[in-house]
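Every protein is a chain of amino acids, and every chain bends into a shape of its own. The protein below has been through that process, and both of its lines are reproduced in full.
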Amino acid sequence: MKPYSPTKYEAARRDIQEKIESLLNELGMFFRTFSRVKSYQSLESKVSLKKDTYQREGKKLQDFIGIRITAYFEEDVQIISEILKSRLDFDSQSVDQLDPDRFAPQRNNLIFKIPEGVLLDNPSPEFIDPTYEVQIRTIFSEGWHEVEHDLRYKNKEIWERYPSNSRGLNSVMAALEVCDKSISHIVSEMAYQAYKNHDLPTLILHSLKLRIKSLDLSSFFLEKQQDPTFLKGVLRADRKEFLRALSLAEPALPLTADNLLWVLCWTQRVLAISEDDLPAPIAHICKLPVSA
């Protein structure tokens, strides 16, 4: 295995990261991304550690390029995972099952195939698979994981001698899980209060939890602000199904409150509308699947 410089593969890393960001930005999701190319020293260490396993099982290292996505909302970890699996060249997935007796960040790692022409020169084809890894976590669990990785994971033998302190570190993760749930609850409560106040712009902003570029409403929807049945339909919208439908729109739809409401009305029947009611600029939404 010949030494290499990670900077040689920065273009490939950037292309992959920008593709993922583009897919999620088109949906207005709240997230941050980080990425890296595995250094030669890190690759050499991992291959040395797992070489026998790789040779015995015919496996190769799959995270030469690594992308990490941190989601603002706990429910978005699964939603982002499903969107990427449907839009990119998916290979495999590793997801930790929840353990009720142990607090730790839940692993949600996806493996995708690197598009042809992106990784022009594999530095070690015998050990490196032409794939990349995407890890998805919440922002709170990401912060804990960074601290835990550098302090405990890299010093396992030391921490094993101090089990009470190790348990204390895990308890921080428990508190952060509560923070994740609290953030989502507060935003949902904002949506409910907006529903009661007939405040449609605030309702759609907090029920869909998206980066909406404009909250201005057309006269059509302004007139609906006093319709409790319509407002309740927006409040109870299936956000996961809404985002799945929105991800199918070609071309991507400008993220305005008006456009998102039209998609919501059409795909989840929040209002009884026909194709003729839809504005011409988003007529392609008619091709989206309609929820039962």
In short: Residues 59 and 111 are 13 Å apart (CA to CA).
